[in-house]
Amino acid sequence: MANGENDFQELYKETLKKMDDLTDKQKQILQAALELFSSQGFSETSSAQIAERAGVAVGSVYQRFQNKQALLVAVLTPLLTQALPQAVDEFGTTAFQHSFDDVESFVDAIVPDRLRFIDKNYAALKLMADQIIVDDQGVINQLKAAFTNQMSTNVVPNIKRLQKAGKMVDLPEDYIIQFLFTAILGYFGKRLLNMPVNMTDEIKHITAFLTNGLMKH
Amino acid sequence: MANGENDFQELYKETLKKMDDLTDKQKQILQAALELFSSQGFSETSSAQIAERAGVAVGSVYQRFQNKQALLVAVLTPLLTQALPQAVDEFGTTAFQHSFDDVESFVDAIVPDRLRFIDKNYAALKLMADQIIVDDQGVINQLKAAFTNQMSTNVVPNIKRLQKAGKMVDLPEDYIIQFLFTAILGYFGKRLLNMPVNMTDEIKHITAFLTNGLMKH
Amino acid sequence: MANGENDFQELYKETLKKMDDLTDKQKQILQAALELFSSQGFSETSSAQIAERAGVAVGSVYQRFQNKQALLVAVLTPLLTQALPQAVDEFGTTAFQHSFDDVESFVDAIVPDRLRFIDKNYAALKLMADQIIVDDQGVINQLKAAFTNQMSTNVVPNIKRLQKAGKMVDLPEDYIIQFLFTAILGYFGKRLLNMPVNMTDEIKHITAFLTNGLMKH
Amino acid sequence: MANGENDFQELYKETLKKMDDLTDKQKQILQAALELFSSQGFSETSSAQIAERAGVAVGSVYQRFQNKQALLVAVLTPLLTQALPQAVDEFGTTAFQHSFDDVESFVDAIVPDRLRFIDKNYAALKLMADQIIVDDQGVINQLKAAFTNQMSTNVVPNIKRLQKAGKMVDLPEDYIIQFLFTAILGYFGKRLLNMPVNMTDEIKHITAFLTNGLMKH
DNA sequence: GATGAATGAGATTTCATTCAT
DNA sequence: TATGAATGAAATCTCATTCAT
C-alpha cells in the first residue's frame, strides 16, 4: 500500500473497464473481500481467508485480480465511482434541487438521509477510513476528486443562495460543507467505537445542532 | 493552557523516564515503534525496521517484549493510561475551571487548544485511529474509559451550568460534547486527507460555527 | 510369518498410498521427516532439512502441515494407528494361531520374528522411543492402546492355555508378556548402543533363556 | 549433540578435574538442569528455563559451564563417574562378594537393590536414555566403559563360578548380564510409559522369572 | 562470581503469488 | 475459468552465548 498514486490510478482505470463482466464467483470474492477488509483491515486479511469466505479456491482470486492491491481497488472502485458519487450527487442534487426556504428544512433534508447512508455503507466506509489512515494516496485522491466535483457543481451554489437570502451564516462554503460532514460523521465514529446509537435521537439532535449552527440568527 | 503541557510526545517521554525498569535501548525501541506504527501503521511495520531505527538488534526487541502485539500494547498503554487521560484532564480542568460568562468564551477556550493538541499529537492520534479501525477492543475501551471519566467529572457540570443560565442550547450533555469533538476532529480529518490547512482560519471558523451552534439565541 | 509382511516401512508406504489426499511431494515430506526424525531426533531436525531431503521448498512443508509438531503427528499417526497395530496383530494372530505343545516352540515362534522386526523397523522404533522419552503422552497412550488391545485378545488366552497345561510358569500374564518383550528389547538396546550384534547368536541365546525362564520345570 | 566423541571426552575430562569446588548456585544449576533435561529432554530445555528453576541469572549458567553441552556433561559426569560405577560396583562386588549357594539367592541379592536404584535415579537414567537415543557417542562410550570395566573384573568371574558349580545355565557371561539387565530395565520402561507399578510385585515376579531362567534345572 | 540486557544466527512460520492440471 | 499445490521471500520469533556492570 501507500506506494504512490500511479499504481492505484492505473489499476483503477483498468478495473473500471472490466467492471461489468463479473462472474458469480468474482462477485462473491469482492463481497468477501469487502467484508474482511473492512472488519479486520486490509493487511490483516489474507488471500486464503478471502477465498474461504467466498467459497472459491485461492487461485480464483488471482485469476481475475492481478494481486491483492488490485482486489482492494476493485472493491473500492464501484464505491468510489458509483456509490459515493451517487451519494454525493444525491446529497448535491436531490437534496438541493428544491429551493429550501430556510436552513431547517435544508438540514432536515440532509441529515436523516446521510445517517442512513452511513448505516447502509458502514463496511465500505470503514474500509475507506482504513485506507486513509494507511495513507493510500490513491484512495485519498479519488475521494477528494469525487467530492470536489460534486460539491462545487451542486452544493456550493445552493449554499451561496441561502447565504445571500440572509438565512445561513456567512462562512466559506467549504467550511459549511465541512461542518455538515463532521457533525454527521460523529455517528460513524460512534459506531466505530461500538457505542450504542439510537437513530431517532441522533437525527433529532444532529439536526437541531446543525440548524442552530448554520442558521443566521 | 500553557503550550506543550499536553503534548503526547512530551508526556510519553516523561512516562518512559518513569519506567525505570526500562533500559535506554528499550526506550529507543518504544520510541521507534511509536514513530513507525503511527506513520505506517502497525502491520506495515516490521520488527527489523523497528530494530534498525532504534539502533538495536532484532533480538533485542523480543528480549523485552514477548511479541509484536505486546510491543504495540507497550507503546499504547502509556499513551492511553498516562498521556491521554492527562491531556483529557487538562482539557477538563484547565478549560473549565473558569466560569465562562457565555458560550463564546467557552468555545474560545477550547477550540484553539484542541487544534494545537491535534497538531502536536498527530502521530499518536493516528496510531490510535488505526487501532480503532482494526477493531482493537482494548484500545477502544481504554479510550472510552479515559473520556467518560474526565468528561463526566469536569465537563458535564460546566455544560449544565451554562445551560441553566440559559446561555447554551438544551441538548443532552453527551451530544454537546460530541459536537465539540466532531467539529474539532474535522481538522484531524483534513490532515489525514493531506488537505492544506491554515490554523488561523480553522480556529476562526470552527469557533464561529460552534459558538453559533451551541449558543441559545 | 512371511518375511516383510510386518515391515513398518512397507506398511507405512502402503498407508501413505491409501492417503490419496496426499500429493507425491507431501508423501516425500512425510518420508523425509520419518527418516530424519528417527535418525536425529525431532528437535534436532529442522524444517529446512526436511524440505531439502524431500526435494521441495520449505513453504511446502507448511502448506500441508500446520506446523512441525503436526508433521510429527502426521508421521507417527499412521505408524501408531496402522503399522504398529497391524504388526502387533500379526504378532498376536500369526504367532499364536497354532496350539504350541510346549514353551520351546512357543518361544521359537516369537523370538526370531521379533528380532527381525526390530531390525527392519529400527528407525521407526527409535522415533517412538524418542517420543516416549520426551514424554509425548499422545504417543505413549497410542502405544499402550495398541498393545493392550492385541495382547489381551490374542496372546493372553494362549498363555493361559499353556499355563493350564502345566507347561508354563504360573506368573501373571502381563508379566509373562513383559519378560518376553524386555528380553527381546535387549537387542534394540544393543543396537542403540552401537554394540556389535550377531543375529544368529542373539536368537539362539534369547530363545534359550526365555524357554528356560518361562518353562515350568 | 552427537557431534563426535572428542568434544564430549574433552569436556568430560576437564569437568572431572573441576568437579569439587562447586558453589551453592552451581549445584542448584546442576540440579535444575538434571530435572529439566530428564523430564523434557536436552534440546527441549532452554538455558533460561534452567536459570529460572535454579533461581539464578542466565549468565551464571555460563559463568561456570562453557556451554549447554558442557552443562549436560557436568550433569552426567558425576553419574557416570560416581553413581553408576558405584552402582555397577555394588552390583559387582557387594552382590558378588559372597559365594552364593544357588542362583536364587544370587538373584535375590540383585533384583530388589537394582529396582530401588532405578527409582532413586530415575531422572538421571532417563537423561542417559535420552542421550543414547539422540546418539550421543560420548555418553554411549562412557556408559560402555563403565560397564565393561566393572563387569569384567567382578561379575564375570562370579558368574563363571556359578556355572562351573552346575547351578547356572551355560550361556555366555555377557548374555547372562544382558538378561539380568533387561529384565530389570523392564521396570524402567514401565515407569517411562507411566504404567502403574507395585514394587513388591515387581520384585517378586522378576526374581521368580530370573531365577527360573538362569537356573540350571 | 553474579547479573541480565544485548546480540545475531538460525529456526519456524506466513502468505502473496504462480502455474500445471 | 477454476483449482489448490507449490513456491520463496520475508516476517516473526527463539535461544545459546557474550559482555559490561
UniProtKB/TrEMBL annotation, chains A, B, C, D:
GO biological process, one term: regulation of DNA-templated transcription
Entry keywords, A to Z: DNA-binding
Keyword Transcription regulation: no
Keyword Membrane: no
SUPFAM superfamilies: Homeodomain-like
DNA-binding region: 46-65
Pfam family, one: TetR_N
Family annotation (PROSITE patterns): HTH_TETR_2
GO MF, one example: DNA binding
Every HTH tetR-type domain range: 23-83
UniProt cross-references to InterPro entries, sorted A to Z: Homeodomain-like_sf, HTH-type_TetR-like_transc_reg, HTH_TetR
UniProt-recorded name of the protein: TetR family transcriptional regulator
Species assigned in the record: Lentilactobacillus rapi
